[in-house]
Amino acid sequence: MAGSHAIEVVVFDVLGTLVDEPGGLRTAIRQAVPAADDASVGELLAVWQQHVEREQRCITQGHRVYANTEIIDAEAAQRVADEAGITDRATIAALSTAGQRLPAWADSVAGLERLGQHLPVVGLSNAGRAALLRLNAGAGLRWHQALSAESARTYKPAPEVYQLAIDAAGCPPERILMVAAHAWDLRGAQAKGLRTAYVQRPVGDPPTRSDAFDWRVDGLDELVTALTAR
Predict the structure, then answer these.
(1) DSSP state, 205?
(2) Is-above-0.90 flag for pTM?
(3) CA-CA distance, 102 to 52, in Å (whole number)?
(4) Is 139 helix (H, G, I), strand (E, B) or coil?
């Protein structure tokens, strides 16, 4: 990984990059609708994801006043419930917090721990503050600092969110590495001058041919080894 010696701080996206967001949501939907087959669960997951993506986009575009992920997830859970015919309030309430109970990818916990012995590691997530706290605890993610987009009252890829990481790092953006499984996230970081690393996950937004990220790795172990070999 050429130029890794210039990196002072590593910033990680969380949802999808370090935890399996679709897998965790799929599990929660299956628990809420035990009679649903795989295809039906997939359709309900799409209802959830489309609502979250649409509402976050509305907020970044100024079409909706900021609402954190706890509010938006509760809305998504209600949409899933309406689609599935769920009326039990306790079931809907449990579903609304599914985004706070997402499993870490197999290499995430050990990778963060190993990297953290060499460099400051920061989480930068669209998850709200309280949701991020519970998500980190449940998945076993340990940071030197965890930043929520809620502090900027918008969502990635809005530039204000990446500025949170720049301010926290206290160094020039070109000495900060943003790691994500989403090309759209890395493009946002790149626009603020951060260096970028795409980590491949079974879910996410792969780079296109026009993307020029600094590094592309197949997993967190590869990235950590490169960053610590100096």
Answers:
(1) B
(2) yes
(3) 16
(4) helix
Dist CA 8 CA 185 (whole Å): 20
pLDDT in tens, 94-152: 999 999 999 999 999 999 999 999 999 999 999 999 999 999 999 999 999 999 999 99
Q: Which pair of tokens denotes residue 197?
A: 């690393």
Map residue 213 onto helix, strand or coil: coil
Tell how far CA 174 is from the center of its chain: 22
Q: Are 69 and 126 in contact (CB under 8 A)?
A: yes
| Other beta carbons less than 10 A from residue 184's beta carbon | 13
Residue by residue, DSSP assigns 10-71 as EEE--BTTTB-HHHHHHHHHHHHSTT--HHHHHHHHHHHHHHHHHHHHHHHTTSS----HHH
Q: First and final CA of the chain: distance in angstroms?
A: 10
Distance of alpha carbon 39 from alpha carbon 54, whole angstroms: 22
Q: What DSSP assignment string belongs to 72-107?
A: HHHHHHHHHHHHHT---HHHHHHHHTGGGS-PBPTT
In the DSSP assignment, the letter for residue 155 is -
